[in-house]
């Protein structure tokens, strides 16, 4: 059995008084740090450059504003009640801290339906299955059928040293037949698992099963390539059960904000971070001008590409790490439609359609099933594909999403209403999706950011092995609060008169 | 692409007046028939033996009553707001009529989380993995790893005639490596997909992956046997997306009831069904005594084992079919717990734990995640296992569920509060789970029930290829309404003065 320690409320015991911590960024990491530090008796000030909290934990709804570095600010115009999550949209069931804070802060959750055998694979312009909508279940079950048939034959012919006893090998053969849906001759000839061409029904309607796709066709259309296969369901983080916050993932950020309102300064853009002998001094500007604020310690949660452009007196190791750690290029577009044709016409309820073109993925909403309107995520792409779409204007991105999307769903033409796109690596105050390490950057640069630089601690998903996940922000915040509190309480024991009260 | 016609509102056009249809049974089939016949202008009377509607579409909540044929009536004593679905608990996304009626009647739906990689396989007293909680993901990914490794080797060694070109075979090899999570040498050495023994986290916690289970251990503990493998996710009907009605599946029945209240006679037990020259006459008894009611036609939705014990003048073919079609033996027990330990301690949110003992399955609730209390379905079993548990007293069933269940969840001891069990093949007015055909009964007996016997039509899931599913009731009801209405309107054309008005 694999164990996982239950998530408990954070309790570091001993409280302190009279300590002021400046937190840079009112994203999940910054707000969690402030929330837990408050409980321990600290006074916190959170500086947030945006006019909203949440950082990348951001749901786009009517009135949402996005500023990308080469474009004017865009305003979302969606119908009331409709939203899409521009940032994190999924909570794995084993991300205990994320679920812990949902519970502690009273944020209701619902299943995010990440696995949907009824969604499509769509290979644009490739192979014999080019431009056809292939249900995920067709490919999954055809491939299982063909590969189990092959292995079954190899075992039957003794062409295989499985290292198993004859009796065990027999059980594997039975399993293969079950796994693949093989017939009595251990051949794959399609099964109901891949769906029907005529549904079973009442009376004399037993249903009719179609022919499987040919293995060579599946291969030549690229449906075994990483574009399609295995991209979702198998990854530990993407295995069902998955959740989302009811009403938008930003409800988690809003729940923290509610607890922390007096401590958050919005529209406060940090311009300089200075370690001083007794603490840290931050210069920031807001509508009223430039300000300086000092604290005993500082927790900096700014994404590294943002931090990289802020004056500081960090050590060389820290500066290098800030400059060299890469961030993911990624973007999403939300498309509002008059009618949930993906449900009504295609019987697709949640889940993901995968494509080999620049869309990469179409996400169907996991909320308000059977209702009238809805927002699809028309693309969710990464790396080069995200770079290409990111360089387009808002109008061109919409055009791309509609042109490619209508190949899968011709209903786009009639039902489309409005779009809103976010390119994270161009979005002001984020400048990237998430910290994306390779073995080299993890080894060489990452460790420098795990220790405080003088009085400045660093926190965020980029300082974890849970990159891209909200859980990273939570875990990192707790880790830094633990370290900071340990240092403060140790100082108090060593230097009881040194201004630490309580 | 596999097509599925969209579900439309039922519109048979032409209305009739002055026709009275008697419907036997206020389950989903009976109420759907009445609902649609009402729209067409018919007058309906629904006779229902129970004091409630819904039949097997039944959620057990505080105050629910169950009468089994060898036991006193039991009353459920659960906390307010908690329930479990004794009958159907899942709606496949492709059961369009079920979703259609949810939409038309305003019954909100939520995801039924049927697939959960975090639930357990538990092999009691069998093999090296005996009595261990094995996460589904461990078995799934270990088996994928071992079998893809085997096939990969066979292909590499040319021990296999796959009929593929060299280039295509290379793609299959790459796919196998991805599918199985093989390492660079195409060997399976465990991967993060099977979970961690130490979760990845902040700072210096990359997470730690455990060793895979040995293939021989998996086999010898029976984890490749049908008890465990493939029982859920692959079946067409059990593929995600799946749904349930919010607040209990009985909300669907209650929504029909609301529309049909004036036409339903509860507590009306049918004792005799007679075809007459001009219609049908039904004798039924209620608290006040015996009554006779006549109609132009009758739709009988009573389960066949119930119908088998009611006096009738059916034809020989129909009588034989009623007697010979088998019904599934099946039962469930709901267990109320003080605390959702399966979520808090085990991170299991919805889904199913499979066992090789008489429990067969433990269902975790797909509603009220993160809340305080909850009801588990402590067993959901079939055939011989259901026969054995069905023969126990209510107290003995509870004892069995607790004794076997605590092997998986020792928290049962401390957290258990109350139970309620239903054995369908012993439950009065149902006497079985659902129609269970083999090729012989489907061929020999089934067809006789698809035609009307005189003025009596038969409807229900047992008259479809959607046995056990609510969709069967809906499809069958529409099918019979179509046939009945066709006959009535045809008669009207042929015999315009024969009492058919409008």
TrEMBL record, chains A, B:
GO biological process entries: amino acid catabolic process; auxin biosynthetic process
Keywords attached to this entry: Auxin biosynthesis
EC number(s) on file: 1.13.12.3
Superkingdom of origin: Bacteria
Keyword check for Ligase: no
Pathway(s) of this molecule: Plant hormone metabolism; auxin biosynthesis
Catalytic activity: L-tryptophan + O2 = indole-3-acetamide + CO2 + H2O
Record keyword NADP present: no
Start and end residues of each Amine oxidase domain: 28-484
One Pfam short name: Amino_oxidase
One Gene Ontology MF term: L-amino-acid oxidase activity
Top-rank EC class of the record's enzyme: oxidoreductase
Family, similarity comment: Belongs to the tryptophan 2-monooxygenase family.
Name this protein carries in UniProt: Tryptophan 2-monooxygenase
């Amino acid at each position: 059995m694999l164990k996982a320690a239950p998530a408990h409320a954070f309790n570091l015991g001993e409280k302190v008084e009279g300590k002021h911590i400046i937190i840079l960024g009112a994203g999940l990491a910054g707000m969690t740090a402030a929330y837990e530090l408050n409980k321990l008796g600290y006074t916190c000030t959170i500086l947030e450059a945006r006019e909203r909290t949440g950082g990348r934990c951001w749901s786009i709804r009517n009135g949402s504003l996005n500023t990308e570095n080469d474009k004017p600010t865009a305003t979302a115009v969606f119908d009331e009640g409709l939203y899409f999550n521009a940032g994190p949209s999924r909570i794995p069931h084993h991300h205990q801290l994320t679920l812990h804070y949902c519970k502690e802060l009273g944020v209701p959750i619902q299943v995010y339906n990440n696995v949907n055998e009824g969604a499509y694979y769509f290979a644009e312009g490739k192979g014999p299955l080019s431009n056809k909508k292939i249900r995920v279940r067709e490919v999954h079950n055809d491939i299982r059928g063909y590969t189990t048939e092959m292995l079954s034959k190899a075992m039957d012919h003794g062409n295989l040293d499985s290292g198993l006893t004859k009796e065990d090998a027999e059980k594997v053969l039975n399993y293969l037949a079950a796994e693949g849906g093989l017939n009595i001759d251990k051949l794959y000839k399609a099964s109901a698992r891949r769906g029907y061409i005529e549904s079973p029904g009442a009376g004399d309607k037993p249903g009719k099963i179609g022919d499987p796709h040919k293995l060579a066709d599946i291969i030549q259309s690229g449906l075994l390539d990483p574009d399609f296969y295995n991209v979702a369901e198998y990854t530990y983080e993407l295995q069902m059960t998955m959740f989302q916050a009811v009403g938008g993932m930003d409800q988690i950020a809003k729940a923290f904000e509610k607890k922390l309102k007096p401590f958050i300064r919005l529209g406060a853009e940090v311009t300089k971070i200075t370690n001083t002998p007794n603490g840290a001094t931050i210069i920031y500007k807001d509508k009223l001008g430039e300000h300086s604020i000092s604290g005993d310690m500082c927790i900096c949660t700014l994404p590294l590409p943002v931090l990289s452009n802020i004056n500081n007196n960090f050590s060389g190791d820290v500066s290098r790490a800030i400059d060299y750690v890469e961030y993911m290029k990624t973007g999403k577009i939300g498309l509002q439609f008059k009618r949930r044709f993906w449900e009504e016409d295609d019987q697709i309820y949640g889940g993901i359609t995968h494509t080999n073109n620049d869309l990469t993925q179409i996400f169907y909403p996991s909320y308000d099933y059977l209702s009238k309107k809805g927002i699809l995520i028309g693309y969710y792409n990464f790396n080069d594909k995200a770079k290409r779409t990111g360089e387009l204007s808002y109008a061109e991105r919409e055009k791309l999403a509609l042109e490619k999307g209508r190949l899968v769903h011709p209903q786009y033409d009639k039902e489309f209403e409005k779009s809103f796109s976010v390119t994270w690596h161009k979005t002001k105050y984020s400048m990237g999706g998430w910290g994306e390490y390779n073995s080299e950057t993890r080894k060489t640069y990452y460790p420098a950011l795990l220790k405080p630089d003088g009085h400045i601690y660093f926190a965020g998903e980029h300082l974890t092995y849970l990159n891209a996940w909200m859980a990273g922000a939570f875990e990192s915040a707790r880790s830094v609060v633990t370290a900071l509190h340990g240092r403060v309480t140790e100082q108090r024991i060593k230097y009881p008169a040194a201004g630490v009260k309580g």
